[in-house]
Structures are given as C-alpha cells and as structure tokens.
Amino acid sequence: MKFYSKHITINTNERVEFIKITDTINEIIKKSKIKKGVAIIFTTHSTGKVWINEYYIEKLLKKDITKKLEKFATSHGRR
User: Fold this and answer.
1) Choosing a second label site near 32 at 20 to 30 A (CA), which of 24, 26, 50, 71?
2) What DSSP state is assigned to residue 53?
3) What is the Cα 60 distance to its own chain's centre?
4) Is the Cα dihedral 59, 18, 50, 1 positive or negative?
5) C-beta separation of 47 from 72 below 8 A
6) Distance, CA of 61 to CA of 68 (rounded, Å)
7) What is the pLDDT of residues 32-65, one digit of tens each?
8) CA–CA dist 30, 51 (Å, integer)
9) Distance between CA 19 and CA 22 in Å, rounded?
10) Cα–Cα distance between 63 and 59 in angstroms, integer?
11) Tens of pLDDT along 1-44?
12) 55: Cα separation from own chain's centroid
C-alpha cells in the first residue's frame, strides 16, 4: 500500500473566512503519483473546519453561514 503525507498551512485575514483549497489538494494528489486511493483532509486547529461542498452551493451559502457564525460567536460573548 502506498502512502503520501503533506502538511499545508493556510493563513486567514478575516475572523470568518472561507478559503477554497481544491486546487491545492488536487496538486498534492497529482504530486503523490498515487492513482487510486483516499485523500484524508483534516484540520488540527480547534476552530478550523474543513467543509466539502459543491462550488455553486458554496457561493450561495457563504453569506448565510457567515451570519450564523457571527451570531453564534456574539451570543457566546465573543466579538
């Protein structure tokens, strides 16, 4: 069984931010030269999230999700 591991760092500029990493992940998979298998993508940061979704849906939901996250953070004493 082949195995390939790659660590990437993603910096954010906003309190709530969505960053598309599809191209980065595809490039890592291509460099691995593994043709069949599973890609496991995760975050080690407690407030970071990996969200898998269709791009057109993502564009429609970004504003709504951002509002909900801001409302949640504000209602829990964070500003």
Assistant:
1) 50
2) -
3) 17
4) positive
5) no
6) 11
7) 999 999 999 998 887 787 877 666 566 667 777 7
8) 21
9) 9
10) 8
11) 889 999 999 988 888 788 888 899 999 999 999 999 999 999 88
12) 12
